[in-house]
Design goal:
The chain is an alpha+beta fold. It has 5 helices and 15 strands. It is globular. It starts with a strand and ends with a strand. 33% of the residues are buried.
Length: 272
């Protein structure tokens, strides 16, 4: 199936896009994603499997639909555009286009009942050195999902499923920022009642999407010592990122549970 957008055609000029139209005064945000396995898209929309490339393209549009929902109504580089780079004429996902391909995850068999953030960084470095994980660059994020029974201590000493549900951070390896995410088992004690009001799967998806959006919009948060650079999209008044401003508010996007994030354009928490 071929989709036409203006003079552009799917799998020829574009992999996917999202837009907006007005229905009885209500903005409707939508996403158009062709079959990524068909000719054109199969080689031009990612360098991994069809499933992984489809996930990557869909996540690209999900993040942009969340952070720039009214793009389809914009006629200038101003309102209703939200998070938009005028210099490169691109949204958040566009600025990393080609770098956002998903890769198959790995299972690290090294086990421990308790782990600190520093120990997690050491283990990531070991996996990088061994070639088990691809070497990091500024556009890569490494979300780490921990099994049940493991307790993680954040850099400030706070404990998983006690003081936090998840977080994302940053450290420097060989002069390159490593963007990571820490996601404990949301089904274990503490997290199962405090990290969402839905099923374990839905709560895990919501928590993971919270960190994914924040890792995309504020990747160097782990290196910041003041309310200023290298922080990205950050609310200095509330000392919070886009997901924190809507913490615990779940929504739905493309059939998946996600956590809503703040939109300046909508002046509200949105899920798409």
């Amino acid at each position: 199936m071929t989709i036409t957008f203006g003079s552009s055609r799917s799998c020829v000029q574009f992999c996917a896009y999202h837009g907006t139209f007005v229905l009885n005064g209500v903005n409707v945000t939508y996403g158009v994603i062709p079959d990524i396995g068909q000719a054109g898209c199969s080689t031009g929309c990612g360098a991994n499997t069809v499933t992984n490339n489809t996930d990557s393209v869909a996540s690209h549009e999900l993040v942009e639909a969340t952070t720039d929902p009214a793009v389809g109504l914009a006629t200038t580089f101003a309102f209703p555009l939200a998070w938009y780079d005028q210099v490169n004429n691109g949204e958040i996902g566009d600025l990393c286009n080609g770098f956002g391909s998903g890769v198959a995850g790995i299972i690290d068999t090294k086990s421990a009942a308790n782990v600190t953030d520093a120990q997690m960084q050491t283990e990531l470095n070991r996996l990088f050195t061994a070639g088990t994980l691809s070497s990091p660059n500024a556009d890569t994020c490494y979300p780490v999902h921990f099994p049940s029974g493991m307790a993680i201590a954040a850099p400030d000493g706070s404990k998983s499923c006690v003081q936090f549900c998840a977080y994302h951070g940053t450290y420097v390896r060989n002069g390159v920022n490593v963007n990571d995410g820490i996601i404990p088992d949301i089904g274990q004690a503490g997290c199962n009642a405090g990290c969402g009001g839905s099923t374990v799967t839905n709560n895990t998806d919501a928590v993971a999407s919270h960190e994914l959006v924040e890792a995309a919009t504020d990747p160097a948060v782990g290196l910041a010592t003041v309310i200023g650079p290298p922080l990205g999209w950050y609310d200095a008044v509330d000392n919070a990122e886009l997901g924190d401003l809507c913490n615990g508010l779940q929504g739905s996007s493309s059939g998946f549970t996600v956590q809503k994030v703040w939109s300046n354009a909508a002046c509200a928490c949105v899920d798409r």
